[in-house]
Design brief:
Elements lengths: L5 E7 L6 H15 L3 E7 L6 H11 L3 E5 L6 H11 L4 E4 L11 H8 L5 E3 L9 H18 L11 E4 H8 L8 H7 L1
Parallel strand pairs: 1-2, 1-4, 2-3
Antiparallel strand pairs: 4-6, 5-6
Length: about 190
């Protein structure tokens, strides 16, 4: 099996309905860059039968890899499990709910090829309800205060990272995990 040029890590929770569409859009975007890619879908013990959808995708395309958690550990543990498995020279992390648009991957990759090891996407409009937006704002303010670092709430997990950056990130095995903060630390 070839070493993929790009690995895409997607933590999955509560998104069974959109997994096929996510896969199709990822495949279309990634094949424009390089057909040697892998998509790693990490089921964080989703209650909506996401795992059965993931196994179907794995059977359809050998470039899709599924990881299944026995219980819900949380998004950032799911990301870490996917990063541990990722083999690509470039690694993309994105959410499963299609708020991170697979069609933006080409732009992220082009920017990375200009010599950047990390390229974050910025989400200008969140499709969350009012309470989730407020909770997110409070979380980011608290995290900024506790880490004495300016945290941009419009930047989440969606981005492209060179393999050596991810190798440094996965060495951090702290119990409390927040992927974007780890990347900033590296």
């Amino acid at each position: 099996m070839n070493i993929p040029h790009i690995s895409v890590v997607v933590p999955v929770y509560g998104c069974r309905e959109c997994l096929c569409m996510l896969y199709e859009r990822l495949k279309a975007s990634l094949e424009k860059i390089n057909p040697d890619f892998e998509v790693i879908l990490v089921n964080d013990s989703s209650p909506d039968e996401s795992w059965s959808a993931i196994t179907e995708l794995c059977q359809m395309d050998k470039r899709v890899v599924g990881i299944n958690f026995s219980r819900n550990f949380g998004q950032h543990y799911a990301i870490t499990a996917g990063l541990d498995r990722a083999r690509g020279e470039w690694i993309i992390v994105m959410d499963c709910d299609l708020q991170d648009r697979p069609e933006e991957i080409g732009k992220l990759y082009a920017k990375a090829c200009e010599g950047y090891d990390v390229v974050f996407a910025q989400r200008l409009k969140r499709q969350d309800n009012f309470f989730k937006k407020i909770a997110s704002k409070m979380f980011h303010s608290t995290l900024s205060y506790l880490t004495d670092t300016e945290i941009d709430a419009s930047i989440a997990n969606f981005g492209i990272y060179r393999k050596n950056v991810i190798e440094s990130v996965v060495q951090m095995r702290e119990q409390l995990r927040w992927f974007p903060t780890f990347v900033n630390w590296v």
